[in-house]
Amino acid sequence: MLKRSLLSCALLATLPAQATEVPRWELGAGLGGVRLPDYRGSDESRNYLLPFPYFAYRLDWLKADRNGVRARLFDLDRTELNFSVGATPPVRSSKNRAREGMPDLKPMLEFGPSLDVNLWRSAGDSYRLDLRMPLRGAIEARSNPRAAGWTFSPRVNLDIAGLGHADGSKDGWRLGLLAGPLFADSRQNRYFYSVSESQARADRPAYRASGGYSGMQFLASVSRQFGDVWFGAYARWDSLHGAVFEDSPLVRRTSYLTAGFGLTWTFARSSEMVTIDDD
């Protein structure tokens, strides 16, 4: 169940949002597939292919749907303060060569506000350029949860609607393009990249990670609704060049590509419609 939740976060948080009229609630089922590294900088990756339930509910200030969970805390013209979530999968150190003999990495849950600013939008909202600035505190998902630092990932996001429709309708494909740096405090980076004296060995010297710049991410995603079926996919390029922990012995790759897809089928929905203008 936990892996399923993490997979959903990894997929859905990357896909472009919509600004349209939709049912108040929807119920369905989905299938997601994604390939993720054990952690950023790992040279070992895992494939996940899992079914998951799909439920969407939309209030004026709170929405839970394919784009994740967002709570709109305030909306001033082109500036919004939203609630942001994220997650990372667990890692068994016995199955990762770089971390052999070290403690397992617990799954991480991230929560925090995101200040989102609309920089430009076209007439009809077919093109939209936003600046998103999520600041999240991390918590280890374990029997006795522990704080694990914070992350800040400002990024520029371009959404393009109606691709493949000559009349400019938003019913065609949607394209999302995103790019931006990542920053994390020393507690977060130590959790993933530090090596204590007792864990050191010939090919893994002791190392203490510091906080600061953590690399860049570039992402492209597409999605489209086909009646009751929705499809989305993404590819993300991750670069750790120049990161403050780049010289950690646990960083085995400084750049890599990840990809995933999501498919949902909606079999029940509300007759009440609401207009949303998501970021």
UniProtKB/TrEMBL annotation:
<keyword id="KW-0998">Cell outer membrane</keyword>
<keyword id="KW-0472">Membrane</keyword>
<feature type="signal peptide">
    <location>
        <begin position="1"/>
        <end position="19"/>
    </location>
</feature>
<protein>
    <submittedName>
        <fullName>MipA/OmpV family protein</fullName>
    </submittedName>
</protein>
<dbReference type="Pfam" id="PF06629">
    <property type="entry name" value="MipA"/>
</dbReference>
<comment type="similarity">
    <text>Belongs to the MipA/OmpV family.</text>
</comment>
<keyword id="KW-0732">Signal</keyword>
<dbReference type="InterPro" id="IPR010583">
    <property type="entry name" value="MipA"/>
</dbReference>
